[in-house]
Design brief:
mainly alpha; three-stranded antiparallel sheet; two-stranded antiparallel sheet; 7 strands; 5% strand; globular
Amino acid sequence: MKSIKTLALVLLPQLTFSKGLDEKINDAFMPFAVWWENFILGTITLFGAQIPIVLILLLGGALFFTLYFKGINFRHFGTALKVVRGKYDALEKSEDDTDDGEVNHFQALATAVSGTVGLGNISMVAVAISIGGPGATFWMILAGLLGMSTKFVECTLGVAYRDVDAEGKVFGGPMYYLSRGLQERGLPKLGKLLAGIFAMLCVGASFGGGNAFQTNQAAAQLMQQLGFEHHASGSLIGLVFALLVGIVIIGGIRRIAKVTEKVVPFMAVLYVAAALFILFSNAALIDDAFALIFSEAFSPRATITGGAAGVIIQGFRRAAFSNEAGAGSAAIAHSAVKTRYAASEGLVGLLEPFIDTVLICTMTALVLVIFNIEGAFTYGDVINGQALMADGSRLGGINLTSMAFESAIPGASYALVVAVVLFAFSTILSWSYYGLQAWKYLFGRSKWSDLIYKFIFLCFTVLGAAITLDAVIKFSDAMILALVFPNMIGLLLLFPRVRQELVTYLSLIRKK
């Protein structure tokens, strides 16, 4: 750690500007971020509260799929685990073993999980609780459980309508099931329109929530823990990230999958182990934390803006950003799996929201609530994404979670730095693939198209580290949530195909 800090202190003073480079970048970016957030998060009045239309669409769709597929998120949870472990691999191979696809079930899950299990699980949970109080955790968990059904539908369609070129490379995701699936249903024009809109928004989301937000929070942790205090420190950290990311994404999905299948288990074990240690060390307070979560889910304290509706909105909004169920992004990674049965990968996909939101987000929330039982920060008093601390200072996002870990385990904040960097790195890798697939759908599959996208993507890696948390949250939240509109419309029109695929696959398993 000391050597890194020493190197930074030598390099950073060489970069001098009349106004800090990070501040200049932020000033230029902030107006667009504010406009985009207001545009996407349009509201309607429901039960006396202003509720974003996109959250109604997410919740309504997830509830419908859960009921239509008779609780598949619970009934076939065990089946999904068996598919990931490879129990049914022999059933899914053709006789000549030439199935389409580039990765196995576990690699597809690891790549998709690395795209969802990111800093949203650490930073955005802190934002949700500081704004909406402990009750937001209850609604995050509910959104995660319902989102499992939505993710099943997305990932099944992703495989069912994917495209494979002459070289065996797979191209899939909402762009393809929207255009091809709706054409099958006699709606070719609507399919092309929704596919084009989704592809454009997916490219933007890859720049925002899948990239800029990740480097922003990783840079915040590195600057706080290692003492990087300079007006260009964020930009420099962003450049280092861009270099490392660039080395990996040049190799495409196979190299990304090889990296994520190693990084994801390691980072998950590191973070979960630290969180569980804190929870077991404070076992006497866990029941108090859950009591607060359940009581304030319906009767929040007076400081929470919007009352119960405000708490619900925060819970579902952060869950949507974290697990992306309904956004359709993960279906792009799952489309690359080696299988002949689309529903097999749909079952694998439903595990994502459970791992991401029900497990990891809940652990983070419990650590934060226990940390705050004695009033470390004030619920609801948030300015520019930062909560009011007991000493009068402001702290937000990843740094608030870091303080919670440090208070329970002295020195844990340094272990969290490692986890944060790995979370950010793996998420950026996965989203680079999502965005590239959408970009190729729009602009073709040439090498020049590939290089142009990757160059712009790496520029946003630097940008994210330079701008403020408030600006990056506004842009990233809106970009991820914007994907819901074209995707959910398609899912609600194409779910009968998913039922057919599920019946076919389950009948195969029963015969075995």
